[in-house]
Amino acid sequence: MSDSHQQPAHSPGTGEGPDPASASTLLLCGARLADGRTVDVRLGGGRIEAVGTAGSLTAHGSRVDLSGFLLLPAPAEPHAHSDTALTAFSAEGPVSYAVEEVQRRATEAALLQLGHGATALRSHVRIDEVSGLDPLEAVLQTRRSLRGLTELAVVAVPRLLTGVAGADGLAILRDAVKMGASVVGGCPDLDADPAGYAEAVLELAAEHGCAVDLHTDGTDPARLARLAAMSGGLRPGVAIGPCGGLSRLPRDTAARAADQLASAGVAVTCLPQGGCGMTDRQGAAPVRLLKAAGVRLAAGSGALRDVSNPVGRGDPLEAAYLLASQAGMRPEDAYAAVSTVARETMGLPEVRVEAGFPAELLAVRGERIAGVLSLAYSRIVIHRGRVVARTSAVREYCDSAAAVALGLPRQGRPDPGRGETG
Which of 140, 172, 315, 347 lies 20 to 30 Å (CA to CA) from residue 370? Predict the structure, then answer.
């Protein structure tokens, strides 16, 4: 198979001026849905205007032939690290955290993940007394520059929040919220007073109306119980992850912790591809146990080619594949963890391929979710009702009489008149 090719369908905007969502309509023709239907889907004003049987809809605008593609709600990435992404193989000495370097890496990483299908990202960005708020400012600039291509929410991650050193961390965190961080987070496990750290984050979040997203390995059930008790009722919501340590607890202990998290409405974001630099990356969260308890379970990618995971792909479909292949989840539930549940965890509107819902969609060549999780090469990504990224793959074989005789499928270059690649 030749190398896949990814490119934004439109150049990034400046972040200034009106919303770039197209005012004209876009007609998606002949798409297959997860329920087996083949339909046309008309998009307009950033939303799905209509869904009808194939050939039944018209549009005053562009058309995209989705014959052979499965059309799904777009994934969202609930756990990215834009400031450290793509730093694993720095050949020029220590990694630079200058604003322009972080912005360049964050932009490249966001576009890479957009090409995979994630039309929304939640990025954890470290802030501390050494680097200050420069990495945060860089990722906020990335968010502005990519407006109209992808949604980027920034989580401010202070190092310490308790004791003498924690006073500076708390001040920096307040400044981060004022600058535009919409989520507050961090890693209580690394503070001398984990409960005090979590309490400080939750209090500040309640004061400013921010969501909370905390790193924890989940190895201390008493600490999880305390966090659940403090989190109950907080809006717009609390998420924790990757919680790989829960798998190392006795099953009944882990089950009690899961019940407490579910009762408090705390979501868990697992990282099937491995952890990140802020937690122990050994082991994965017990996803079936968490789901059985009723915990809202999302899945993210975590490290993207940094020192924590130098081969991290940042691909939501790979995270779903690993949930299905290694954790035993149904393919449909695994995909929901990186799409529907991830969006809910991030506070984003629900997406369905139905009239009236946001036009945040991913078309993947294939017929069923299980198939696209296995061989998800060609993808078309739609954000706010327009195509913003395409990935095309072509597989070719040398002539084979056996393949011809058996009528085996062969993915080749498409008819140029269709305007779409395979």
Answer: 347
